[in-house]
Design brief:
Two copies of one chain form a homodimer. Chain A is of the alpha+beta class. The first copy, chain A, is about 40% helix and about 25% strand. Chains A and B meet through helix 6, helix 7 and helix 8 of A and helix 6, helix 7 and helix 8 of B. Chains A, B: InterPro entries: GHMP_kinase_C_dom, GHMP_kinase_C_sf, GHMP_kinase_N_dom, GHMP_knse_ATP-bd_CS, Mev_gal_kin, Mevalonate/galactokinase, Mevalonate_kinase_arc, Ribosomal_Su5_D2-typ_SF.
Chain lengths: ~325, ~325
Amino acid sequence: MSRITSSAPGKVILFGEHFVVEGQPAIAIAVSLRAYVTVEPTQSDEIKVYSKNFDLTETFPLNQRDSWTGKMTPVAVAAYTAMLEADKKTGLNIHIDSQIPPGSGMGSSAAVAVATVHATSLALGLQLDPRKVSDLAYEAEKVVHGKPSGIDNTIATFGGAIAYRKGEGFIQLKPIFRGVKLVLADTGNPRNTGEMVRRVLALKNTYPSILDPIYYSAGKLVVEAAQLLEKGDYENLGILMNINHGLLSAVGVSTKEIELLVHTARENGALGAKLTGAGGGGYIVALCRENDAEKIISALKSHATNVLTVNLEEEGVRKENI
Amino acid sequence: MSRITSSAPGKVILFGEHFVVEGQPAIAIAVSLRAYVTVEPTQSDEIKVYSKNFDLTETFPLNQRDSWTGKMTPVAVAAYTAMLEADKKTGLNIHIDSQIPPGSGMGSSAAVAVATVHATSLALGLQLDPRKVSDLAYEAEKVVHGKPSGIDNTIATFGGAIAYRKGEGFIQLKPIFRGVKLVLADTGNPRNTGEMVRRVLALKNTYPSILDPIYYSAGKLVVEAAQLLEKGDYENLGILMNINHGLLSAVGVSTKEIELLVHTARENGALGAKLTGAGGGGYIVALCRENDAEKIISALKSHATNVLTVNLEEEGVRKENI
């Protein structure tokens, strides 16, 4: 048993959010923002979790699993799940330091869960298959978050880009991502994923003849986008991001602040820009040529509460040599 | 032969712009902004047109029809067309005073043409069937503007609301429009209809599998909207305006300024808001309950260069008793 640090990347949904709920495909990619989790076995009978981001310490007694509450419960559950797999119960100190903005739809929670399972299992001497790491993190997430799509833990585990369709699972894409960056900008308004998903589905139920073809269009768009991503055809990929954004506007999840950021990015040279995730607030994502990024970032900074520049992250969960 | 004043209303496209170009239906309604045209036969051998809006006088010699140029040519051509129909050539003084903002996509040009044909024929002692007035105005418009859809002259002649499909012509709708208003707000950016139409068609040719279902959705939406308009179901009509706007955003004709106005209207209580016409600039239209109109207008005024409040106009072209 030893002290282990693992890290896993966050993600952005490039195409297909909302439409994915009703069986259309979506594309998500790992981004170069990672969650770092250090796990150290202790002699105690509790899991102690410290989050640097929230400057918060919480303690979870190993023999009172049912009593766990508090913000860090998902982390403790992820570690506990790995312990059960390793068949070794032990006290742990867990230290979390994440570059992924929490609550941003960038998969912060899943990246932490994946890195926690990875580090915990290694700390307990167990070398898990990546698929197993992903599955355990998913199980842990499910305990706390209901029924996630599985996109976030998959991306955090494997990195790169995936196409996903509900009921069919994942295809690993082979994206070419050179000379471009993704710029992410925060509207400053919180997302409310559940509420947005409910509203879109209600609209679809009221006007199926209008909404069904929009979903169909979104599905065709994702198929096209997957090919463009593998060809590195960024110009057309940007155009498809813009179309996808319009479809999200049509189903009612855009806002004034989102539009301001999306159009600011486009006007300043982004190849494409769209809301990412549930909408109603949250982040937008803009695809930019490297040479244009600085201008776009600077323009976005006058309207966004946070601007991040990321690359596609090829590498999924990994042990850090710290 | 006597001095006659006629007037005809402008229009807004409520649903289906752009998609109408490829055979989907559209809905346009006459609005309570009218173009007033006074025609007075003279002893001269020329048509003299004075536009109050442009503070401009232009003269068109009757015996040099081929040499006519200048901004007011469409008016002279409309009058001339009516003269040919009446089989009486005479000098005319024409005075134009329009409430319809020129270049707004609100059919200012067609309303002037319709009122000019109407007033000229009456001044020459000819009582034309409304269908004939509309056709002659269309012929006159065609000489100057290429090949218009025929929506504008139809609305200006008949008033009310129409559903239109290319190749199939018009259906007169029986709209209920009570307790609501339309608020129109100008982005201050000029439209460029030709350029926008070309861009949308180019996008459709590049991505037919993505765009075709969007057009299909837009068509279904118009059928639904026509029923809601005849029922006076404004709540759902507003929702369809929002969806329609998203589809227009998807085909690439929205802008930051358009989105700012659309979302400002919605945030301040509009039942629905969308760009109207070709996009890329121009006006947005918001459907508002009468009680909410003041708040919406006042909010729009901080962003728009012009804000107009209109009703549905039931009456088409008419002789004014002035």
